[in-house]
Amino acid sequence: MENGGTVETTYLGAIREALQEEMRADDTVFMLGEDIGAYGGAFKVTDGFLDEFGPDRVIDTPISEAAIVGAAIGAAHMGLKPVAEMQFIDFIAPAFDMIVNFAAKSRYRTGIGAGLVIRGPCGAGARSGPFHSQSVESYFANVPGLKMIAPARAYDAKGLLRAAIRDPDPVLFFEHKFLYRRIKEQLPVDEEIFVPLGKARTHREGTDLTIVTYGAMVYKSTEAADRISAEDGSEVEVIDLRTLRPLDTDAIVESVKRTGRLLVVHEAPRFGGFAGEITAQVCEEAFEWLDAPIRRVTAIDTPVPYAPTLEDYYLPGEDDIVAAARWLLAY
Amino acid sequence: MRSLYRYLWLTRALEERLEIIFKQGHVIGGLYRSLGQEATAVGCGYALADGDWIAPSIRDLGGLLARGLDPRDVLRQYTARGTSLCAGKDNTNHFTVPELGILGPISPLGTQLCVLNGVALSFRSRREPNVCLTFQGDGASRTGTSHEGLAMAAALNLPIVVVLEHNRWAFGTPSTAVAAVKDWADVAGAYGVPAVTVDGNDVLQVYDAATQAIARARAGDGMTILVAETYRMLGHAQHDAQRYVPDHELAEWKDHDPVQSFSDYLIEFGFESDSTLDQIRGEVALELDAAADEVLSEGYPAAEEARTRVYGDPSLDAEVPWSRGAVPGYEGLTSGKRGRPAAGLEGA
C-alpha cells in the first residue's frame, strides 16, 4: 500500500527486501541454510527466492549448521558473499567452533577475511520454549573478529542487513522473531536504505535518564519512558544500539554525560550479558558524570521457559523498567 | 619420478632441519612431523592441477611443498618471524596461501573440510572445473564437523577428494580404541560415495589413485574417499616420546619407509641412478642451509602488531590497553569525590 512515496513494510519484509536487493544487485551474493529453498524458510523470509535466483544461489543444506557456516567461510575466502540462515538462532550452537575458531580468527591469522553473514531469528516472547527463544549475543561477545547486529526497526533491519552483506568481516545478524510481523513501518520507496554498522541511534530523546537497549526491548523501554513522562514528568532517553559489536561507546557516553543516569535493558540473561560490558565502559569513561549507580534490567538467569506464566516472569517487562528507572531518577 | 623423489626428500629433510632448529630453541611452539607419511601427502599434492585447492592436515607438509610452498615460509612460521605468511600470528603447519590454492587447517579438527566445501561451491558457482583435495587422520575423522562436512560434500555432489590417512594414532590413543571401524573404506558407505584404499607409503600408488579420484571429481561425479594405509612413526609432536607405541609396530613400519622404498624402487628398476638421487639430496641440503640462514636472521613481529588485522577496517584494531603508557588526568582526580571533574580536566 503506497502512501506518499512510502510503503508499509514489516520487519520481516524489510529483511526479505534487503536480501532480494543485494542478490539482484550482485550475483556473488548467495544463501544457504535449512528449508530455505522450496519451503521458503521456516518464517518464509526466502519465499519465492528459489524461483527467482535458482538452486545455485538458494542452497538447501543438510541439518548441519557447522557445515553451513563452514561452506560460507570457504565461499567468502573465494570472493563470494554468503548469507547463511540459522533456522532459529539457537541452532547456531553446533556452528560455534566454525564461527569462533575459523571465521573470527581467519583474518588475524591468515590475512584473508571471511566476509559472511549468519542471520536468524532470536528472542523470546513467542512461547517457543528453551530452544527456539534464546538471545545468543553474549556467547559471541568475547570473540574478537566478529561483528553483531540486533535491529529493532524495519528500517534498520533492511539497512543494516545490506551493510552486513557488503562488510568484509563475519557478521552475526540477530532478527527478533517477536518483531517479524508485529513491526510495520512506512519505508521510503525511492530512497536507498543503507545503515552503516557501529552506529547507535536515539529512539526517544530525554534529559533525565539514559536507557541503553536493543532489539525488542527498545519498544518496552520506550513504553516505560512514555509512562514515566506522563505520570512523573521525567524525560527518559532511549538509545537503540542497533550494532552490538563494534559497540558505539561514544553515543552511550555522550548521552550519559547529559543525563547523569544509566539503565541498561536487555532480553538476554543477566550474568555475563552486554549490560555488564556497557556498565564497565561507562564507569571507565564517564564515572565522574554519574549521579547514580548504573543498574541493569535483564532476563533472569535461567533458560527460557515455555509456560506463559514462566516466560512472562523470565522476561523483563515494562513494569520492571519503570520501577528501575524511578529508582534511578530518585537516587 | 625425479621430482616426486625430490618432494619426498625435501619433506623429510625440511622436517629434520626443523627438528635441529627446534633443539636449538628457535621453534617457539610444538613441532609436528609427518615421518613415515610423506608419500601420501606428496603423491596427492603432485596429482593436483593449477587452480585446484589443497587442504592439508598438520602431517601433510609434503603436499604443500609439491604445490609450491617455499620451505622458507615453513621455517618462518615455526620460528614466529614477522615475515611469516601469518605475520607471526599462527603456528604449526597452518598455512593458507590462496595464490597456491592452499587452505590451512585450524587446530579443532574436521572444521577445515566444512570450509573447503565452500571453496568447492565457489568453483561450481563460477563454472570452473577445479577440484579440492583434503586430508584427515583417522582421529580427525571422528569429529562432528568431519561428519557434517562429508555429509554436505556428498549431498551437494561437490568436486572433492577426501584423503583419510589411517596412520593408526590420534595423539596418544590408537584408532582401534576409539573407532569400531575395521576397514576404513567402509565409512564411505555412510555418505553414499565410493572409497579407494591404497598403500599410503607407496607414492606411485597414491599418485595414481589420487589422479583418478581427482579426475572423477573434475568430471562432476562427486566426492571420493581415498583411504591411505600408513603409520605415524613419531609421537604426536616433538615433546611426545611415544612410549605408548609397541616397538614391534615401529620396526615393521620402518621396513616400509616411503622415502627409502621409493629410492630403492627407482634404482632397482633403472629409473634413476644412486648418484642422481644423491645429487638431489645434496641440492636440497644446500637449499635448506641457505633458507635457515636467511630465516634465522629475520626478527619477530613488532609487539604492537598484536593489535592489528582483527577486522578489515584498521580503525577497528584493538585499543592500546589504557594501563600502558601515560594514564590520563591522574593528578587532578580526587578519590571518593562524586561529581564532574574540575575545570581543565574535561575530556581527560
Protein architecture, described:
The complex is a heterodimer of chains A (331) and B (348). Chain A is an alpha/beta fold. Chain A has two domains: 6-188, 3-Layer(aba) Sandwich (Rossmann fold), CATH 3.40.50; 201-330, Rossmann fold (3-Layer(aba) Sandwich), CATH 3.40.50.920. Chain A has eleven helices and 14 strands. Chain A has helices at residues 11-25, 49-53, 65-77, 96-110, 137-140, 154-166, 217-232, 249-259, 274-286, 308-314, 318-330; strands spanning 6-10, 29-33, 58-60, 81-85, 117-122, 147-149, 171-176, 184-188, 201-204, 209-213, 236-240, 243-245, 262-269, 295-299. Chain A has a seven-stranded mixed beta sheet with strand order 3-2-4-5-7-6-12, with helices on both faces. The longest helix of chain A is centred in the last third of the chain and has 16 residues, at 217-232. The N and C termini of chain A lie far apart (48 Å). The model of chain A has no long low-confidence stretch (mean pLDDT 97). Chain B is of the alpha/beta class. Chain B has a single domain (2-303), classed as Rossmann fold (3-Layer(aba) Sandwich). Chain B has twelve helices and seven strands. Chain B has helices at residues 2-23, 38-47, 61-66, 71-78, 111-125, 144-155, 175-178, 187-191, 203-218, 247-254, 258-268, 274-296; strands spanning 53-55, 132-137, 160-166, 169-170, 173-174, 195-199, 224-229. In chain B, helix 1 (2-23) packs across helix 2 (38-47), helix 2 packs parallel to helix 9 and helix 4 crosses helix 12 (274-296). The model of chain B has no long low-confidence stretch (mean pLDDT 93). Chains A and B meet through helix 3 and helix 4 of A and helix 5 and helix 6 of B.
Question: Could you give a short description of this structure?
Answer:
The complex is a heterodimer of chains A (331) and B (348). Chain A is of the alpha/beta class. Chain A has helices at 11-25, 49-53, 65-77, 96-110, 137-140, 154-166, 217-232, 249-259, 274-286, 308-314, 318-330; strands at residues 6-10, 29-33, 58-60, 81-85, 117-122, 147-149, 171-176, 184-188, 201-204, 209-213, 236-240, 243-245, 262-269, 295-299.
